[in-house]
Amino acid sequence: MRFETVKEFCIGRGIAYGPEQEELFEKYYEMLIDRNRVMNLTAITERCEVEEKHFLDSISLADAADLSGDLSLIDVGTGAGFPGLPLKILFPNLNIVLLDSLLKRVDFLNEVIGELGLSGIRGIHCRAEEAARQGEYRERFDLCVSRAVAALPVLAEYCLPFVKPGGQFIAFKSGKAEEEAAAAKNAFDVLGGALREIRSFSLGKTELQRSFIIVDKTAAAPEKYPRAAGKVRKKPL
Q1: Strand-strand pairing, 208-217 and 163-173
Q2: Are the beta carbons of 93 and 69 closer than 8 angstroms?
Q3: Where exactly are the structural domains of the chain?
Q4: Is the pLDDT of residue 230 over 90?
Q5: Directed axis angle between helix 103-116 and helix 19-36, to 10°?
Q6: Four-residue CA torsion sign, 141, 94, 155, 192
Q7: How far apart are CA 101 and CA 209, in angstroms?
Q8: Residues 6+ apart with CB under 8 A from 172
Q9: How many CB atoms are closer than 10 A to CB 24?
Q10: pLDDT tens for each residue of 113-171
Q11: pLDDT tens-digit series, residues 170-216
């Protein structure tokens, strides 16, 4: 059984999807399940659930952002590579950094990248609040995306400093996205962001309710942000 739901999504949007992409998704899936036996990468392991809740959810970003052109993207708190790796499989033009604080996960990601023969993508081991202060990463990206589980004011402080003015931060959310966006308004204002829209949708056959919270980067973030992790979580903006 192949990834029919992913294929249908791509065909419906004119995204190239053929034997090459199918093989890459298959290899990724096999490596994910194999490595998950010895380390905690995902609680979702059934093939149909991985396809919808990881692969399809990741590539649904194509409905919220223009992914054509030579774009730079950072995936903050990428975990097992979502959404960055599925996006790279379908959009080879993207220049992607997968950021995670756990070295074992980053090692796995770089192994997958090598096995799949992907270029223009790399995993880096660093905490978000540390990487965002480094010149190589601070305000260098057209897009910052995250599926990480964190309150939006916290996530915004970690993510917006990576985005160059004119770029976007897009958070993958479920549940009450409008309430989260309202709670994060001050964080957006402080960090040079402005809410563009909330785009809600049902995910595949499961009809899982998901939302994209899309934030434009309108000005540079003050140099003192992001703060240390403890302050970000204890006293959100």
Answers
A1: antiparallel
A2: yes
A3: 4-234
A4: no
A5: 150
A6: positive
A7: 28
A8: 57, 61, 83, 145, 146, 147, 210, 211, 212
A9: 20
A10: 999 999 999 999 999 999 999 999 999 999 999 998 799 999 999 999 999 999 999 99
A11: 999 987 899 999 999 999 999 999 999 999 988 776 677 899 999 99
Q: 138 near 113, Cβ under 8 Å?
A: no
Q: Is the pLDDT of residue 58 over 80?
A: yes
Give the span between the Cα atoms of 145 and 156, in whole angstroms. 10
Say what the alpha-carbon torsion angle 185, 188, 196, 64 is, to the nearest 10 degrees.
Answer: -110
* Token pair belonging to 81: 């590579």
Instruction: Give CA 229 to chain center in angstroms.
Output: 20
Query: Region 73-93: what's the mean pLDDT?
Result: 97
DSSP state of 230: H
Question: pTM for the complete prediction?
Answer: 0.96
- Contact 160/192 with Cβ under 8 angstroms? yes
Q: Candidates 1.20.1600.10, 3.90.550.10, 3.30.70.980, 3.40.50.150; correct CATH number of 4-234?
A: 3.40.50.150
Predicted pLDDT of residue 176: 82
One-letter amino acid at 38 equals V
Q: Are 157 and 232 in contact (CB under 8 A)?
A: yes
